[in-house]
Amino acid sequence: MMTLGNSMLIPILPKIKSSLNLTQMQVSLTITVFSIAAAIFIPIVGYLSDRFSRKVVIIPSLILFGIGALLAGLGAAVFSNSYLWIIIGRILQGIGAAGTAPIAMALIGDLFKGGEQSRVLGIFEASNGLGKVLSPILGSLLALVVWHAVFFAFPIISLVSAILVWIFIKEKSNRQAPPPFRKYAKGLLSVFKQEGRWLFTVYLAGGTCLFTLFGILFYLSDILEAKYNIDGVVKGLILAIPLLVMVTTSYITGSKIGKNLEKMKKLCVIGFSFMTISYASLVLFEKLVPFLLILALSSIGAGLVLPCVNSLITGAVGKERRGFVASLYGSVRFIGVALGPPIFSRLMDWSRTGMFLSLAALALIVGLLVLLLVHVKGKDGKKHKKTKIRYKYI
Length: 394
Known about the structure:
- With 394 residues, this protein is mainly alpha-helical.
- It has one domain: Up-down Bundle (Growth Hormone, Chain: A).
- It contains 14 helices and 2 strands.
- A two-stranded antiparallel ribbon has the order 1-2.
- Helix 3 runs antiparallel to helix 4 (54-77) and helix 6 packs antiparallel against helix 7.
- The longest helix is centred in the middle third of the chain and has 46 residues, at 181-226.
- The protein starts with a helix and ends in a 5-residue tail after the last strand.
- Residues 378-394 have low confidence and may be disordered.
């Protein structure tokens, strides 16, 4: 649901722009306000999920997500001043999205342990990516009817999701009584005081992957229509190519890393190396097929990084504070998504070469930060070298 909330709109952004006579910055705000609203409310719902339960937060969030989409759709189809109503609906959608994927990530940490947890988190990231693969295609298909049909699809999907969560998700019954807020906050401050340097570094790593991904999709969506006159389902299929590469890589990475934290760090560094090479090389390629082939290397990089970051963050704290810490990571991801379209719209106006070289420099810097600030220390084992990151379980 979190992924569909933005990705289904990517292929129809040019149609929104032309239908409502918007500027490039105004149309980018339909993505940005969703992500900012989610980023603001994610820590709040993260605390509530720690205080009460994951399920109690997820179901109302899905319902609010659907209500926001319905309002945006009615605003586009019926109300005057359509753009304002779309923005209001998107804000409500963002608040609802705050209680979806980040809380689901914390729930995985509650229900699974050890190598199985990493495997399921890999599936979680792959499902996130699968949503990104399918959503441009779904968005393009719905746009064949009318461009705002996308908004009316969201309430149906969110209602089905809420029913499935209600029926099939079973939380463990031995949940401890929640601590008082002051004690809870004190524990969180202790976590970030002791482990903040590496924790914020992996937050930055995840946010950077989402920022570059959505920025590139925004750029690609624009040039496919403006330069290549590619629209409709074909456009959705092309947008899905780099996402499919990322999904496949995420699934394989999650299934292989187990709880080997040294391997996670190495894969993060390798992933950012791939992203750096890819973005720097894109300066040299303007034809579509070579461009997509080189772009796929950055998708492999993101697919290596994201499952590792998920595992590192989920294992950083105990169950009683996992919701907040995972949700804060969700906020960083949403901020990355929010910043992508408006910043890329400025970079596109500035310089194509400058845009890709700036992305390469960003990926290089974040990769170096991971290399220098995320420390692991090894333990001797009989057969395999087991490692642990330099944090303690709180």
